[in-house]
Every structure is written in structure tokens, then in C-alpha cells.
């Protein structure tokens, strides 16, 4: 059923009001926009006009959401603190914003039984107009031959200093009035696009690909230290800093 533009706008506004104070961004789109650029085996299994919303985290999420989430909590069998933090805020926002509406939430870290991700995050960000997904096909004179080169999204305000966290689908809610807008093309020159993909694929650890364009905000030094730490050692880092309390089993 197609929802009036006012309802779709209200859904977006309600979710944004719940998540923006904690460093998250929300971008609506139609399932059909996503399916149109992917092979059928990767499609989302909903009607083309179904409303979806993408949740991204901005640099300030670490300070506004993650650290408060850890404070005064004791965890048992914690898997990944960032993932649990995102799930906490997103699930709470969904419950508060849509108490009578079915919403299917997919997180960026979730996998299907086939070991494929539940959704292709960077593709979703591009079709939603949130961040431009730069790929090898965007290079006119490809200099890499047979070398595998992965694509990467660039945000118009944060460059590479952001993350795609969740996809929300609203079964039964059509978004026929929603107009698709291209994401801002912030890496316009061929030379810079080549440099971006080389930095991302060949030396992503030095963070430099994230600054390929001027940005409004970056990760804090504390946040960079956290993400530079191997995943297996992050719990220890948080415990040593006093940010995380592990409840004894």
C-alpha cells in the first residue's frame, strides 16, 4: 500500500529525531532503487516501492553514543561493543518511533546462511543518496590490469570518516512519492579517484583515503586508537581504560 508523502516524511523525521542526538544519520530510499543496480540473487525480497531507511554513523557517534552506552553497564558474553551499541540505539529508536508498525532491521555485520551479507551497505548508501560509491567502473583509464580493486563510499561531509550501520525495511509501506537523488560526487577528477582507490586498497591502514577530500569532522584520536586495535584486543583496551565492565560468569 502506498503511503502518503506526509507519512513517509513523518517516519523519516521520527527516526531522525531519535537517532541524530547520538551521532547517527538517516536516509530514506525505495527498495526498487537498490534492486535496480544488482543482480536478482542479491535483491531485497520486497515490492519495488517499499520504503527503506539507511542508518549511518557520523564521527561523533563514538562520543555521543558509544561511550555513554558503555558507562555504568556490566556485560556478559559481549561479542562486539560497537555492534551492540548500534543495535541498542537502533532497536530503541524503532520501538519508540514505530510501536504499531512492522519494521525489519538488518545490521551491517549480519550474514545470511549463504555467508553473504544481509545487504550491500555501500550500494545502499549510493542509491539512497547518502554517500557516493566510487568503483573501478568510475575510472576511464584503468591503470590496474588484472589487479582486484575494491570500491569505497565517500560522504559529502565526512569523507571516509563514517560507517554504514543498518538497513530498515517497512513491509507494506509504499514510498511512491519519494524522489531519488544522486549522492554528491565529491571526488570528481579521474586522478583523485585513482588515488582514492589506491589508498583504500593498498594502504587503508594509514587512514589517508578518508581524507581524500576536505572534511568537516574526523574520528577523535581515542576513536582511531580503538579501531586501530585488532578486534580481539578491543575488549581489553576498553577494560584498561575503565570504559567497560565485564560481569563475571
From TrEMBL:
Its EC number is 1.16.1.6, 2.5.1.151. GO terms for cellular component: cytoplasm. It is found in: Cytoplasm. The keyword Oxidoreductase applies. Its cofactor is FAD; FMN. GO terms for molecular function: cobalamin binding; cyanocobalamin reductase (cyanide-eliminating) (NADP+) activity; demethylase activity; FAD binding. GO terms for biological process: cobalamin metabolic process. This is Cyanocobalamin reductase / alkylcobalamin dealkylase. The lineage of its organism: Eukaryota, Metazoa, Chordata, Craniata, Vertebrata.
Amino acid at each position: 500500500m502506498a503511503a502518503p508523502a506526509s507519512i513517509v516524511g513523518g517516519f523519516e523525521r521520527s527516526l531522525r529525531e531519535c537517532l541524530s542526538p547520538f551521532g547517527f544519520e538517516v536516509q530514506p530510499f525505495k527498495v526498487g532503487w537498490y534492486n535496480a543496480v544488482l543482480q536478482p540473487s542479491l535483491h531485497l525480497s520486497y515490492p519495488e516501492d517499499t520504503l527503506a531507511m539507511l542508518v549511518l554513523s557520523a564521527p561523533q557517534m563514538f562520543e555521543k553514543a558509544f561511550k555513554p552506552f558503555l558507562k555504568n553497564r556490566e556485560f556478559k558474553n559481549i561479542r562486539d561493543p560497537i555492534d551492540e551499541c548500534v543495535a541498542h540505539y537502533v532497536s530503541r529508536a524503532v520501538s519508540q518511533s514505530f510501536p504499531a508498525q512492522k519494521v525489519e532491521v538488518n545490521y551491517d555485520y549480519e550474514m545470511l546462511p549463504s555467508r553473504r551479507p544481509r545487504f550491500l551497505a555501500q550500494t545502499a548508501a549510493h542509491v539512497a543518496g547518502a554517500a557516493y560509491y566510487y568503483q573501478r567502473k568510475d575510472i576511464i583509464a584503468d591503470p590496474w590490469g588484472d589487479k582486484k580493486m575494491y570500491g569505497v563510499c565517500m560522504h559529502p561531509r565526512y569523507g571516509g570518516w563514517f560507517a554504514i550501520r543498518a538497513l530498515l525495511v517497512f513491509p507494506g509501506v509504499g514510498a511512491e512519492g519519494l524522489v531519488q537523488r544522486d549522492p554528491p560526487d565529491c571526488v570528481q577528477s579521474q586522478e583523485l579517484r585513482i588515488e582514492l582507490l589506491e589508498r583504500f586498497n593498498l594502504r587503508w591502514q594509514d587512514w589517508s583515503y578518508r581524507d581524500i577530500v576536505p572534511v568537516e569532522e574526523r574520528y577523535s584520536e581515542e576513536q582511531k586508537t580503538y579501531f586501530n586495535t585488532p578486534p580481539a584486543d578491543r575488549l581489553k583496551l576498553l577494560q584498561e581504560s575503565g570504559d567497560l565492565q565485564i560481569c563475571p560468569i
